[in-house]
Amino acid sequence: MAASFRTRLARLRVDLTPWRSSRDFRILMVSGSVFFLGSMFGYVALPYQLYSLTHSNFAVGAMGLVNIVPLVVFGLYGGALADHVDRRKMLIFTGIAQVAVCAVLLSNALLSNPQVWIIYVCGALNAIAASLQRPSRDALFPRVVKHSELPAAVALNALTMQAGQLVGPALGGVLVGTAGISWAFGIELAGLSIATLMYLRLKPYRVGEHSQPPSLRVIGQGIAYAARRKDLLGTYVVDMVGMFMAMPIVLFPAFATEVLKEPKLLGALYSAEAVGALIATLTSGWSRRVHHHGRAVVMAAACWGAAIGIAGLAPNIWFALVFLAFAGAADMVSGLFRSVIWNQTIPDEMRGRLAGIEMLSYMLGPLGGQARSGLVADLTSVRTSIVSGGILCVAGVAATGAALRDFWRYDARTDEHAVRERDLRAAAEADEA
User: Fold this and answer.
1) What angle is formed at CA 176 by the lines to CA 360 and CA 260, rounded to 5 degrees?
2) 202 to each of 19, 86, 156, 205, how far by Cα in Å?
3) For all residues of the chain together, what is the average pLDDT?
4) Burial (CB count <10 Å: 0-12, 13-18, 19+), residue 30
5) Which helix (H) or strand (E) covers residue 233, if one does?
6) Which regions span the lipid bilayer (predicted)?
7) How far apart are CA 280 and CA 241, in angstroms?
8) This prediction's pTM
9) At a CB cut-off of 8 Å and minimum separation 6, what does 26 contact?
10) Is the pLDDT of residue 30 over 60?
11) Greatest CA separation for the chain
12) Burial class, 416, CB count within 10 angstroms (exposed 0-12 / middle 13-18 / buried 19+)
């Protein structure tokens, strides 16, 4: 009986095979941890600074509106670029740009009268740099591990974000409340610099000889491919609907200060979802036995919305933290299976362009959701905004699953695209051996 229990626990444990087998995967994972840890300090500091200067929830949420156009334009262009140039160089050059933008934010925070317009301009510039960088990183990711290791690699890669999201906001909230906003931006600057230096250690990853320079036609080919693939379309729509309806992060300063009366625990609100996501990741061994990934995405996204709505009803901050942790776990499961579908079915020659579309799907939803939740909160109340968002998320995700039947029926064992990529990777790995 004891042996059986230990076997069940072993099946839940996260698979470390990609970490052991791939040097470049280790570099990407460690640099990602440093990057996200540093950026989470700024993630707390920037909205807090905007709220302190303007005392408006909508002004904080408007940062999402400022970022939308750069994300759309440069996300699509960055995806096409990732299919044409050395993806390692893209990581390095865009990392340098992010370091420069963070330095300007730090300089502005050190002024006696920080300027709101500088914060918005830096937000837009950072969105441009991130939009150019993220497709190259995501497109590089499937090339550094074996095809069979991708589910485990996706789970391990999620740890890079979760480690930063778990520690960064909590420490950032304390640091902002004690030492000041400029210290948070200073730590973000250090993290971005270290991560960019680590990218130098990656080996070059050049694209195939038949790659095409970025153009509207090339970008259009990627969009048309994504639209034809209903399984891919489902991953984008579910995430955008869920995040647009139920993203509550912009309300955390007001939720902690005015509703829950616990301003010193603001950082804990930011970290709660990461705690749940981390627990879900560390027990993700079960995911390799799931093959109907579309169903898993729909059900997990609906659970995310339900947990967010319940958190909005919290009578105290501890109740809110528990359900935000549940939401984080559900979101991680949804993200895990979305990533597995992307990485196991998209051909390498399309990977950059599709990575750009993927980035838009999981960034535009939250950015639009920030503006929506901030506006609803100002028109009604913070609680109403959070609870109504959770309800709308569950309804929207359920409707998407019902409308996109191919996504709901997706099976990794028999899907033609998954089978094709599995065979191609197996042949390539056999040639290398």
Assistant:
1) 80
2) 15, 11, 18, 9
3) 85
4) middle
5) helix 230-246
6) 27-46, 58-78, 90-111, 117-133, 154-175, 181-200, 236-256, 268-286, 293-311
7) 22
8) 0.73
9) 19
10) yes
11) 67
12) exposed
